[in-house]
Model the fold of this input.
Amino acid sequence: MTVALSAKELNKIVLAIDAFSKTNITSSEANTKNRIVGPILEILGWDTRSNEVMLEYPIKIGSTTKYVDYALMLEDKPVVLVEAKPFDVVLSYDDSAQIISYGRVEDVQWVALTNGRKLKIFDTKEGKTEKECLVTEIDLEKLPAQADILNLLSRESILTGDIEAAAKRLAATKNAIRNLKLKQPEIAEEFQKILLEITGKDAENRVANISKQLAEQSIQLFEKHVETATGSVPAGEIQLITRDKLAAKSPGEVVLCPSRVEGVEFLMKYNAWGFVTMGKKQIPYFALYVGRPESSVLYFGEIESITQPLKSKEDLVRIQMQDTDTFETGKRVIHLKPGTLMKFRDPIPLKSRRSAPRGLRYTTLEKLTKANNIADL
Done:
């Protein structure tokens, strides 16, 4: 089993990315490699000061010689090729095709492409195009939440073969999605047969509609698994604490947001909460009330930033389109500081339904620490 990456070191990478994004040198590939890509390789266990990491590795293509930014070596052979682009460049299909072709020429199975914000991992044995070869894409700004998938490129993962096993699992899931889409009408028919046996033919029209929805949702669940299996916050990264530990933090306001149980997935996936209407921006803390069956204030985190009121979905930077059902213009997204999300061992219970949070409200850290029930907030 590959050793887990250090959350502390990954948080440093997130801070480095944020700091670099605010400079005027983001168009420089050299600075992107120096500030972000090199440090990531070090965290992954590759010694960038030794022959284990070869810079500007030459690749002979026909009568010309091309150069890839990094070749990660084991036993004097390249096992991973990494191509870096400037931070402010959007990674393109051509960029992907380039690094995949380098891997195929050198007979290197694993290659990666990054701009310091996104990182794509490819299996060159799966084909020639990005779609055929893509194993996964990582949002480096969401570390350590995506630590497990980044770990696929670690020295340990390459040595143990963990990357190959993980790639096979992801490929199998993607293949299942393709088959489900091809067989969607047949799946709906099978659902319909089963439901009609239970409900009787009097409900035939409703059963037909429900069966189609079930077939669609089956595909969506598989797709969500591909997107979030490694993108969600690993359980080990969520601190389990008792509320008295909050007393050591600086006093401040807490924005308390209500959620259904299903909404917790959004919090884990993005280390953020959206979409909210709020006038205040200088709020240091966030808490989440989770409805039935939890019916308690269960999660807490420190706020990194609160967006400006959003004018359209195009303003969203980190949230995927399929997770914007509750989006409305003028609402904001609350982003938490990496590594600060906590779950209470002693959640604040709901004593009376009348005191259940119906919308966003504000409280203080002191009240959150000492409350016996939600009415005390």
Observations:
- Residues 252 and 365 are 6 Å apart (CA to CA).
- The two ends are 44 Å apart (CA to CA).
